[in-house]
Amino acid sequence: MSLCHHYGFVIAIAALSGACASTGATPRPFPTPRPASAASSPSPTPRPPRPGPASGSAIGYSITRMALDLRGAPYRNGGTDPSGFDCSGFVQYVFAQHGVRMPRKVSEQFQAGTIVDGSRLEPGDLVFFATTAPGASHVGIALGGDEFVHAPSSTGEVRVERISASYWSTRFVGARRVL
Question: Which of 88, 104, 106, 156 could pair with 152 as two cysteines, CB 3.0-4.6 Å apart?
Fold first, then answer.
């Protein structure tokens, strides 16, 4: 079963905008989340990546498991740890726990790794959105399929959303693979 299908039943939330430490701005219009339609279940414990040819995808799955374990952590402008994250601090923290150094700012993360076509996302890829200005101003971690996990703006917490939601799909600016 794919990671997308595994977690797809866990949470169904409408699009909520994101702002990040690199701008501190809150986008307009600001959508509000709907309550989750399903109760959350515990996320699996992160496992170390397997060595060998599939290690990139194994690290991607481990990264997404850790990111999912952080659901519910509050948003904090400039936050870089589980007491509060902004979007780029969330990405930096999750990747650092797997030995992958990431830049701090969204604009710098948008230059990391290689470009990925949005239709070929894999778990652990970074997805970028223009929420406060033209260009990448918000980042999340792809779960595979249509879902991503991110730290949205000051009224939010780390959560899963759909890239195809009207708010996010109109603001999608690209994806990068750093693993």
Answer: 156
Known catalytic residues? 87, 138, 150
- Which residue type does 55 have? S
Tell whether 10 is covered by a domain.
no
Tokens describing residue 63: 């990264």
- In this predicted structure, the answer to whether residue 115 has a pLDDT above a threshold of 90 is yes
Report the predicted TM-score, pTM, of the whole model to 2 decimal places.
0.72
Rounded Cα distance, 106 and 11, in Å = 26
Closest Cα to residue 4, out of 109, 177, 161, 131? Answer: 161
Q: How many domains is the chain partitioned into structurally?
A: 1
Single-letter amino acid code for the residue at 25: A
The residue segments making up the domain with residue 91 are 18-23+52-177
* pLDDT value, residue 56: 56
Confidence of residue 20 (pLDDT cuts 50, 70, 90): low
In a domain, 38, yes or no: no
